[in-house]
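[audit] Reproducing an earlier prediction to check determinism. Same input, same settings, fresh worker. If the tokens differ from the archived copy the diff job will pick it up downstream; this log only records the rerun itself.
[audit] input (193 residues):
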Amino acid sequence: MANGPKHLEALGELNGLFPSVGTKIVQFQDKKDFNALNLTDKEWESVMPRGGGFVFGPDDTNSDSSYDLPRPIRSKGKDVYNIAIFHQLHCLHALAEEFKGLITTIEAGRPGDGVGSDRIEHIQHCLAYLKESLVCCGDTAYEGQSSITDLPSTSGFGSYHVCRNFQQIFTLSEDRRVTNMAGYGQGGHSHGS
């Protein structure tokens, strides 16, 4: 690694290219009106900024090796990067989309069309990527007994977590967006290999 900032913010950007957003205490709530399988639900829409979290990289990425960055996405002659949280949400949304498709097929009692290799690749990528993301974040909040059952279990709801200020991340990403794309951009999407 070349020249990272003197102080690294937990879960922040290594090079200091994304401003510090601070933290806030959040009590996880089971939002009964949120249907994770309704892919147009307002809750899904409310966490994906216009532009899908794609932002322009620093102007001098190609000529200056002082940043520790992966190879940029090139778009319209510019270096573009995706803010990780929005890639993570894209993957979670894609998994919900696939799961909903399977449920719909099963409930209709019809044979499925099968899952194409490109979709399987995307699902495998998303599962591996989300596993890495969760391990990286390492949320250590204590979670207690589930309110749904008396059996020893936890739903995770009701516990307090120290979270990064998501609204600031959302706003900063939207302010720096590359395009005005709305939604999760699933159609024809490929991460490559």
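[audit] rerun output stored. Observation attached for the diff report: The radius of gyration is 19 Å.
[audit] end
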